[in-house]
Amino acid sequence: MSSKSVIQAGRATAKKTISPETKQSILGLAMVLPSFAILLIVVIIPIVQSFILSLSNDAGGYDLSRYAYLFTDKGMRGNIVFTLRITAITCAAVLLVSYSLAIYMRFNQGPIVDLIRRTYMIPLFIPGVIATYGLINLLGNHGWLSRILETVGVTLPRIIFDEKGIIIANLWFNIPFTTMLLSSALAGIPSSVIESAKDVGVGRLRLFTRFIFPLSYKTFLVALTFVFMGVIGSFTAPFLIGANSPQMLGVSMQQVFSVFQEREQAAAIAFFSFLLCSVLGAFYIRSMAEEEKGKM
Amino acid sequence: MQLSVRELAKRYKTGDGVGGINIEIEKGELVTLLGPSGCGKTTVLRSIGGFLEPDSGDILIEGKSVIGLPPEKRPTSMVFQSYNLWSHMSVYDNLAFGLKIRKMPKAEIRGAVADALKLVRLSGFEKKYPAELSGGQQQRVALARSLLLNPAVLLLDEPFSALDAKLRHEMREELREIQTKTGLTMVFVTHDQEEALSLSDRIIVMNHGRIEQIAQPHQIYDEPASLYVAGFIGKMNFLEGVAEEGGIRIGSLVLPNGKELRGRVTAAIRPEDVQLSANHGTEGVLKGRVKQIMVLGHYAEVTVELAGYGIIRAFQSKEAMQRLQAGQEVGVSISKLTGFPVEEAKAN
């Protein structure tokens, strides 16, 4: 056999060894690789680094003392409870307001609906710092709302530098996007489905509990996850509007890191915040998996 | 009277809508609202179902006005064009839901659902989800869901339009069978004249938001009340003629016409009422030339150009068709026609 024919035979053998399935797998991997690389560099490696850092103690060894501190220190424990309380109240309030707005816009028509539709997105276009200072000017002790109310003898309760201020700011930041998400989910429910439900005699409450909510539940969970993760890790509004104590975890983490310069403790707070978000993430994934399983 | 619609009117912002709608439907009747898209048939149906509030008029079901009542409070049930099964519920839940709302005991619900599924030939499908069913099966479930509620009037909004021709034909037969079995009063909306003719006890032909004619299928076909109905139902030839004392004259032909007409008229002639013969030179026969022969299975549609009158189409049997060829001169005779004033033709 000549050397040319040997090479050709070799090529033929090489061609045969890569099956279409393998080619598809390689292509699939190649497409996933860039996003996985970004995830690795931006999320996974920093988390692992933070976790390793958070395990180091003052004696130069490794233990869980930084995590123990989170639960034994009264101030830090207060911060965790405060953060969870603010997050829970915000999630409930945002979802309630956004769901109500989305339902109102979906099933009604007229000038009020048009007005809401045109204006509810405005907060998304105002930078967070500016919006927060705007709220301070509006709701602060010497803000203009307070001054107006003083003229009629009403004293505005403390809102700024209080948890009420943080919650109001959170509502401002989260309602537009959540409303948009839920509106699109509700728009996906055909009117005819609602009509057929009414046709069999379904009243308003049952229409919501048995049709509208189950058919938009998936987006509701997505919205809840977004709001929860956004609020639990929020910094700007709690930093500018919140009280000195208790603090939200984001503000506390910044203080521990920059003011007290305790990098290891800040890493422990960061990793703990990540764990809190992971709990909701796991709940979301489980719910979706169960729904998919139910369909099969 | 099971259903009475009196002077119903509904106008949309676009100017479309319906007006002067008067319908009386007896218990156990299957009445079809027939007309082209945008004629207002669905507006009438949705007004009866409570999905639209009319501007004026009244709707009475079993003698009681239902105006102002929401759909859930009306003794009606609707089968929608797009099936509208609830995708997050099984077939059983789709059917049982309305009965649960009516607080029917569980054991009775189970029995009723089983009976309804048997009626629509879907026994054993209880646990399936809508996504697992074919279009025809989904529409059967939708029909069963409405039947279970035992409505005073069952409304059907083009329920078979999304199905293929064969399935549509089967579903028509099934619906008629179910209607006969249950004795339900049904109002059926369709734009398909064949569907209307084959299903209905009576047909209401609508055009531009108004009722053109209410009659039994054979009357609609044989005695159209307007030129519009004549043209909308089945195939029809239109020729210009002159109304005289003895009837309507078209060339040397004079044919009787039941209506009192004078002057220029439009004569509506069914293709099956047109006869072709080799004899084209005698009195009482119009002279024509065969333009085209279209074989349509067991019969043929022959297009003939009439000297001075334009085109006329005739249905011919297989045997008669074999004696004809394109370009051949033929004699055209007409056995029956209906005359309409020329103004009506202009209005349409």
Automatic annotation (TrEMBL), chain B:
GO terms for molecular function: ATP binding. Residues 3-233 form the ABC transporter domain. The keyword Nucleotide-binding applies. PROSITE patterns: ABC_TRANSPORTER_1, ABC_TRANSPORTER_2. The keyword Transcription does not apply. It holds the Pfam family ABC_tran. It comes from the Bacteria. Keywords: ATP-binding, Nucleotide-binding, Transport. PANTHER family: SPERMIDINE/PUTRESCINE IMPORT ATP-BINDING PROTEIN POTA, SPERMIDINE_PUTRESCINE IMPORT ATP-BINDING PROTEIN POTA. This is ABC transporter ATP-binding protein. It comes from Saccharibacillus alkalitolerans.
